[in-house]
Amino acid sequence: MLSSFVVAFGFVEGTLNFVAGRLAERIGRKKVLLYGWLSAIPIPVMVLLAPSWGWIVAATVLLGVNQGLCWSMTQTAKMDITPTDERGLTMGLNEFSGYVGVAGAGIVTGYLAIGFGPRMGLFLFGTVVIGLAIVLTLIAIRETHGWAKVESARHASGAATGPKARLPRNISDNPTTRDVFTLMSWRDLGYGIGALAFGIIANVTGVVTSGFWFVAIAMFLSGSLVMLWGEETHPSLNPQGE
């Protein structure tokens, strides 16, 4: 039962993370963000009225859609309007604020569950958050795609300063969706090998923590390799990379 919950969320969110980026280039960041929150509207009702675990899994699928579209757009929109030499800080702040919000939501829903019951507590919290998010998206969020277009035009004209994207061989300067998918799937096997090895180790040892230890050690080793042989891309720290 738990595996169906996790797999449903992970598969859907991963797919929508991929789709959201390309979709945002066509219709804009704000619309994708709005669609993400609209997809979440049924979730509180489904949790409240769920007669079986299947309803919870279905609600989790919608949660994956919401997360895949909305979280991707928070990152993309921030990158659009952030100077190139501050994007690392911006990404860190985005992740920090997001997970602080998750922690805060856990505390609030815990108290609501104590006061109103688990289902009603989640229903109340989810309804308020989704409603506020939709209203704020409509009246307070600005479209940021224009900033990205301006920066792209500057790079195309040669007027932009700073590092340029270094794509692998056989990838054009304007990669298609297929190019990006193949690059991140089997042409760049880091993520795939890590996920596969995690599953194999956890299955062979019978202990999930063994898989986590493998990931931790692999991350340490890969980070060490980057530190020793990687090339700095920050424009202020490596002006020669322009």
In words, what does this structure look like?
InterPro entries: MFS, MFS_dom, MFS_trans_sf, MFS_Transporters, Sugar_transporter_CS. Keywords: Cell membrane, Membrane, Transmembrane, Transmembrane helix, Transport. It is a multi-pass membrane protein. This is Major facilitator superfamily (MFS) profile domain-containing protein. The protein is an all-alpha fold and 242 residues long. The chain has two domains: 2-150, Up-down Bundle (Growth Hormone, Chain: A); 167-230. The chain has ten helices and no strands. The protein is globular, with a radius of gyration of 21 Å.
Quick overview of this protein structure:
The protein is an all-alpha fold.
